[in-house]
């Protein structure tokens, strides 16, 4: 959503074309200042435009999950919960941004309704955790892969390890695949998470975009 707004705003205000035309009529000594002032003006305009966007309605996660503090400012887990003696951590990203070429194809709402969900299940005293990579949709959740990974801290949560982590999920027996689906559903990982995670991503993307415009504007002041 925010990415689409940024793209549309840029189309309406083609910076490179406008700055080039104006700078052609300027003296060589005034060109750097003119370009900087023009860029700063557009950064401020877009910052104001994005700041006026209404946030999505507040959505709470399922009651068994807790929101990780400061999750909006990092790339680690978003939600966590305990299940017996297990610790479960969830992290999320848009499928359109994870699949090569997906960012260029995010023209419709369907792309924005596809999320990648990372599910990490660990137990105390064990040095490895069970890691699920899932596709999350408004009405369904599908497991793409299951792997064994060393326990990671929040900063390393989405890193891919180079060591062998297990067979391809599609190569597993159908009954075993169904059992893995049942395993995470029993722990509350299902399509009921979608509404919260979708709204959470909107807020995170909006904050990131606001921060980008603000930081870029400070650099060029």
From TrEMBL:
Signal peptide: none annotated. One of its GO terms (cellular component) is mitochondrial matrix. It comes from the Eukaryota. InterPro entries: MAM33 (IPR003428), MAM33_sf (IPR036561). This is Mitochondrial glycoprotein.
């Amino acid at each position: 959503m925010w990415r689409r707004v940024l793209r549309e705003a840029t189309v309406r205000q083609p910076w490179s074309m406008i700055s080039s035309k104006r700078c052609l009529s300027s003296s060589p000594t005034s060109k750097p200042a003119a370009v900087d002032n023009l860029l700063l003006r557009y950064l401020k305009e877009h910052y104001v435009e994005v700041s006026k966007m209404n946030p999505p309605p507040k959505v709470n996660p399922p009651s068994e999950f807790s929101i990780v503090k400061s999750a909006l400012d990092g790339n680690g887990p978003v939600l966590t919960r305990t299940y017996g003696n297990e610790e479960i951590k969830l992290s999320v990203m848009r499928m359109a941004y994870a699949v090569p070429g997906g960012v260029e194809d995010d023209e419709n709402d369907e792309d924005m309704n596809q999320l990648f969900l990372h599910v990490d299940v660990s137990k105390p005293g064990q040095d490895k955790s069970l890691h699920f990579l899932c596709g999350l949709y408004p009405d369904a959740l599908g497991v793409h892969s299951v792997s064994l990974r060393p326990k990671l801290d929040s900063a390393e949560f989405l890193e891919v390890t180079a060591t062998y982590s297990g067979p391809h999920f599609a190569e597993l027996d159908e009954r075993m695949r169904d059992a893995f689906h049942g395993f995470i559903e029993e722990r509350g990982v299902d399509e009921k998470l979608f509404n919260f995670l979708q709204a959470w991503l909107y807020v995170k993307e909006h904050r990131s975009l606001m921060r980008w415009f603000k930081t870029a504007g400070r650099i060029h002041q």
